[in-house]
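Worked example 4.2. Below are the chains of a multi-component assembly; read each line carefully before continuing.
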Amino acid sequence: MNGQRGVQSDVYDSRERLCSRVGSFAVMDCALVTLATGRRALNLRELAEHLRVVDLDSIYYHFWGTLLRPGFDHPEFNNDFAAWARHALHDYVLAERLAVVDPAEYEDLEDLRRDLLDIIEERLDEREFVPWARSGQQFNFLTAVLVVFDTHVRLDDPAALPSAVAEMSLGSIFYHFIDARRRDPKGLDDFRAWLCGADGRYRDLCSALAALDPYFSTLSQTRRRLAALLADHLGKAGL
Amino acid sequence: MSLSIEDYARVARPEAVERLRQLARPLTGARVVHVNSTREGGGVAEILAKLVPFMNELGMHASWEVLVGERAFYDCTKRFHNGLQGHVVELPPALLRAYEQTNRDNLDRLDTTLREADFVFIHDPQPAPLLRLCGERRGRWFWRCHIDVSRPHRPVWKYLRPHVADYDASIFSLADFAQPLPHPQFIVPPSIDPLTDKNRELQDEEIRAVRARFGIDPDRPLVAQISRFDRFKDPVGVIRAWRLARRFLPDVQLVLAGGGASDDPEGAQVLADVQEAAAAEADCHVLLLPADAHRTINALQRTAAVVLQKSLREGFGLTVAEAMWKGRPVIGGNTGGIRLQIVNHHTGFLVDTPEGAALRLRYLMDREDLRHEMGEKARRFVRDHFLITRHLAEYLAMMVALRRGMSSRVSLS
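Applying the procedure described above to all two chains together yields the following structure tokens:
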């Protein structure tokens, strides 16, 4: 995964190929493999110290990678920092402050890093003691390799999108609707990037897609919401 | 009956099999070798029995090699196992010599296979020295550690670390287990095979027959721990929890069932301790099962109202996912990979003591509706995250990533 948006040439290549196919949409899929970074924090100060220098991919992983990892349908928290503050440090105030951070609002992950550090340092100032986790409940900074592959499914007509999205794998939803925002210089997901190129006909749909926040949903919930939204605008054929 | 990878589309998510084919395409023709120390018994052998044929079906040339050793070798590697899980153990030089010599002896047999392989997966510490012994290797070598090494007995890790440091990558089941090593460390939880004899659906008649064979009263409830007789599985703690719960649930029967792995020389002593602890209890059934008693284990898990896995340390604890796949809530030790499988209060309960296990046992036995609700959630959770199709997909992605130079994004387009 990239630290900044749009610096990965292979993905641009595939986007260019996608666009050059006279408007067809190439359905891709992806698999996420998790890696340890070797960084671990046993207390809140250590968390801040690692957070200050850890690769941005790791911060991205702890917000968005949770969607592709084993997890429960109704998670209490949507990012790993908030979950750790609650369950390992037992600091409910910090957990709530971290939980409300929505990574979708950040165009640059460095800004996200800075805001996380502000929240943690403010909490350190407030607390008399640095909160510690029990042995065995340390925060492990992780990262991931995203392996992207072509499903060889091509959509030539936006009308096919509702049924196609309903059938897509969760990896495809992640790749086209979430990961795409880091790849595109304007922060667009792949559906909007495709539809917005069609002489403004889908302006309302693009606005509706932009308003769909995937952060507080599981990927299967996002898939259902996307399919329903697309069907509302493009017709329910095939759904 | 030989199963094809296509059969898994029925039980996993439908797209899972097609994803495997796409991920495997760049690996077509690759020679893959897995090496471990036992052909049967334990979760590693069960996973390999399926992963290897799947890799072949996906176009690779995969094989599975097993180390052959004498008793001193297994004594040594059992000490490694216990030491890596945090027990203080001695490593007498004679046992270490047997360990190293056994690896040299096995290399004589495996040398060509290993040298020519494109990918080699070395499972656990037993075959770890093969990398340093195998001089001119051409492939990528993974050290796959299935053990909880989060807090190892330091002398054991100090001895083993040089044997694993030179690998191209290592694979751990949980992030907590990763150790400082000079190569990429992947985090890949293991998995169960939903279509093997141990996990497939069974007819009621077969389940009834298993109950009858072991003298289990069909009219009274049963709880079970199905696990190797190993101190870290805390079978004596399970008996203690059951005794505490029985004061309030006098009808409940307990089954402690398991086999021994051929590379575990301590199992007989642990079994003797368990039998002694259960000797005075007519309703506590201690069953030593052969390594191939998969359908029996399946039936016992299905006949239990609640399954326990009260481990003190655990590499992963696949018996948890097995029971959850059968729609059973699980009371598990708050340790290792069990924490990844049991979502506390949703798919079961995590406990730290026999008293905690007794409390949850009473609670679940009193609430049939909750048992069913948790069991349903548990089954869905396993389907989405702990089936072998997910496991294989991550192996394929890892292999592709390592071959393509380990950037944070790999495009197969």
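Take a moment to check your reading of the output against the notes. The first helix of chain A runs from residue 9 to 20. The CA atoms of residues 23 and 198 of chain A lie 8 Å apart.
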